Amino acid sequence: MVRLTANARGLSTARLLPQKQQKSSLRIRSDTIEAFPRCSESNFSELRANKRFAYFDRTRYVSVLDSIHARAILFLRPRRFGKSLTLSMLEHFHGVQHRAQYGELFKVTPGQYLILKFNFAEVRRTRDLNEADQGLAKNIIGNLEEFYGDYYSYLGGSLGQMISENINQGDAIHSLRNLVGIVDHTLYEVKNRGDSKNPLANVKGIYLLADEYDSFSNEYMHPYNSKDWEGSNASSLVRDFWATVK
User: Fold this and answer.
1) Average model confidence (pLDDT) for the chain?
2) Is residue 224 part of a domain?
3) Structural domain for 179, as ranges
4) What angle do CA 100, 154, 164 make, to 5 degrees?
5) Which of 187, 185, 181 is nearest to 204 (CA)?
């Protein structure tokens, strides 16, 4: 058995003598684990690949989340609780592009989705509320382009073609709707042909992951005067985004 000790690197392990051991559900091999990672580590694949680190296993929640028959699930937890790492875990579990890593990352058979990710903490901030929507729109479009970068070969076109035909730099919401339409049409065609060898044959649809979903709104919403925010283009874009997602 081992105990956890705080140090400059985070939490490390130290061996306990037999007379000090007590019952515990946590078992750590102190000869292979040097430390728990800092809270800033949020890439599931990199964390699992680093054998020096221990990972508090949350993979059992994949099946729990899957059993919740809801179109959207909201994680409300404090900062540094591990929300981003949990989203990364879901991405690597459900993402068809991570299929080659399944054996290394999981001990069960994952589902199959196309992963559409957003991180609203990465939106470029500005003091001018009237210009704030531009940073949000750029963030949305950038994530749509990243989606095409991951899946253009699955969707039957070149990356340049996908972006030029379906991304409207002046209309992030229209571009999002285009993306959903392309995926729906492609999956329908694959299933209609009965092409069981197609890598999309068992794909269920899009799995959307939104990290720091309220980060952008909280940057500009004033607790005592919300009129400026409510009447802004940024507020309209936020509402349109979530309305489209729903």
Assistant:
1) 75
2) yes
3) 112-245
4) 130
5) 187
